[in-house]
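FORM 12-B: Structure-to-Sequence Request
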């Protein structure tokens, strides 16, 4: 099973500080994407009654023509075999490839007997003992962020309730992915000037940034714990942060500590 996070949680762009390094923003968006899609695969199993959840991520496929669409099954939950893991899926191939090409949900009660899809993945589907399958593209306007699969180990028609449940999860994940993509594209804000710290505030901050506790800092610098607390509160106020974690990150980003 791959990475996980909650697509209903606050997303980038909800007042979150953006990194000054554009490459860092892109990497952060990738991490959000992986977390959201990994969690989507799990929630399809946990909340929609599916036996297996899969998510395909749009990627250029080896040997494909320039401009052709495709995806790779990067996230999964509930699988017994590994033939579907990291499987490449060109647009139009198999049920997920059909959803990718048509930009619309599609489903079959029995994948192996279906006549409306190609059967490139029959061996992988059989290895996991799958039959009924639903695929839903994660659409944001004209952009496809992925395709989610909900599969069952029985022959059964997909009812409106299950299709709707998967669709709700797909929409929530798409909102998170669209927010992360927009967040990484925005121009980074210029860092605000750092107010000057006193030598003692800077010294206490330097030790706090290494993870030392207030008693440890007090013993090292020959101060009382209350004095150390006072210096830290003053430094936090000047830097506009709320806790020691933010204090350490801000201190490093502003060059106050290495």
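FORM 12-B RESPONSE
SEQUENCE OUT:
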């Amino acid at each position: 099973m791959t990475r996980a996070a909650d697509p209903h949680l606050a997303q980038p762009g909800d007042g979150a500080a953006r990194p000054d390094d554009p490459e860092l923003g892109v990497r952060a968006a990738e991490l959000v994407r992986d977390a959201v899609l990994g969690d989507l695969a799990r929630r399809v199993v946990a909340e929609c009654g599916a036996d297996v959840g899969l998510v395909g991520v749009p990627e250029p496929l080896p040997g494909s023509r320039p401009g052709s669409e495709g995806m790779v099954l990067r996230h999964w939950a509930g699988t017994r075999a590994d033939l579907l893991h990291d499987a490449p899926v060109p647009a139009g191939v198999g049920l997920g490839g059909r959803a990718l090409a048509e930009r619309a949900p599609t489903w079959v009660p029995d994948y192996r007997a279906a006549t409306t899809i190609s059967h490139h993945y029959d061996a992988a589907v059989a290895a996991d003992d799958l039959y009924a399958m639903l695929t839903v593209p994660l659409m944001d306007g004209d952009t496809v962020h992925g395709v989610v699969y909900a599969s069952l180990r029985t022959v059964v028609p997909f009812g409106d309730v299950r299709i709707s449940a998967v669709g709700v999860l797909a929409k929530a994940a798409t909102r998170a992915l669209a927010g992360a993509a927009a967040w990484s594209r925005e121009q980074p804000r210029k860092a605000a000037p750092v107010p000057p710290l006193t030598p003692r505030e800077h010294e206490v901050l330097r030790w706090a940034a290494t993870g030392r506790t207030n008693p440890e800092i007090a013993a090292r610098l020959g101060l009382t714990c209350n004095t150390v607390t006072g210096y830290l509160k003053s430094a936090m106020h000047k830097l506009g942060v709320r806790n020691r974690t933010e204090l350490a990150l801000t201190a490093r980003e502003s060059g106050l500590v290495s």
